[in-house]
Design a protein that fits this description.
CATH topology of the largest domain: Jelly Rolls
Number of domains: 2
Oligomer: single chain
Number of strands: 11
Largest sheet: 4 strands, antiparallel
Radius of gyration: 18 Å
Strand order of the largest sheet: 1-8-3-6
Order of helices and strands: HHEEEEEEHEEHHHEHHEEH
Strand content: 15-25%
Shape: globular
CATH architecture of the largest domain: Sandwich
CATH class of the largest domain: Mainly Beta
Length: 234
């Protein structure tokens, strides 16, 4: 696998303001790897001595309740950075990261990343904005859990579409995932998620394409307050 270059790193929004020299420092002794679906490549309670860039594919960040129930905290897509918080404070990882589709990763050492944050206030601010955006996303997703099954599944599908698209497009193709994964993300029983998805297909809200699903009609999401009328890819 060819080396990941400073130019490629600068194409990522978080690193766009960095110089080629700074990117070279971050990429010192970086590693690349590929993983298949369902493979756990970051484990909860591992020590955080590195952070990761998701070059391709989709993964989920999960943890478990005291009763052993799986909770999906977020979904990662192409262009995402993760593992940076444990890399900063040296604490154990707070969740597993599991491949949902085939993924390729770049693994960076934590020390150059932490040093650069101390030296470059603009870079530190970019990271703070990223974390704020993730927290807002998480709050919005958990607020939806009080909604009905259709609302929750529509929100989960739109979220997956956005995560699978660099353009943040709610109508992007959602890779074919097991219905269990859809149900977990929506906070629904698998049978409920299956019935609800069938209804959405029959209404033409969701269409099945080669390779996955796509939200064909955004109006049900707009009517339920899941997105503003003008929001596509924004």
């Amino acid at each position: 696998m060819a080396d990941f270059t400073p130019d490629q790193l600068q194409a990522w929004p978080l690193f766009a303001s960095l110089s080629a020299e700074q990117c070279t420092q971050l990429l010192d002794r970086h590693l690349q790897s590929s993983h298949g679906p369902e493979q756990v490549f970051v484990m909860e309670q591992d020590w955080g001595e590195s952070l990761f860039l998701l070059r391709s594919g989709m993964a989920k960040v999960r943890t478990y309740t005291a009763d052993g129930d799986e909770v999906v905290m977020s979904v990662l897509g192409e262009g995402d950075v993760f593992g940076e918080m444990a890399a900063l404070d040296g604490a154990a990882r707070s969740a597993d990261v599991v491949a949902l589709t085939p993924v390729t990763l770049v693994k960076l050492r934590a020390a150059p990343f932490a040093a650069l944050l101390q030296q470059d206030a603009g870079f530190a601010l970019s990271l703070a904005r990223l974390e704020a955006s993730r927290l807002r996303d998480l709050n919005q997703r958990f607020a939806i859990q009080s909604g009905d099954a259709t609302t929750r599944l529509l929100d989960a599908l739109a979220y997956l579409a956005r995560r699978s698209s660099v353009a943040n497009d709610p109508q992007a193709l959602i890779p074919a995932l097991a219905q269990r994964e859809l149900a977990l993300l929506a906070g629904l029983a698998r049978e409920t998620a299956s019935r609800t998805l069938s209804k959405l297909r029959s209404r033409g809200t969701v269409e099945e394409l080669e390779g996955g699903l796509r939200i064909a009609d955004l109006q049900p999401l707009i009517k339920r307050g899941l997105m503003p009328a003008h929001s596509k890819g924004g």
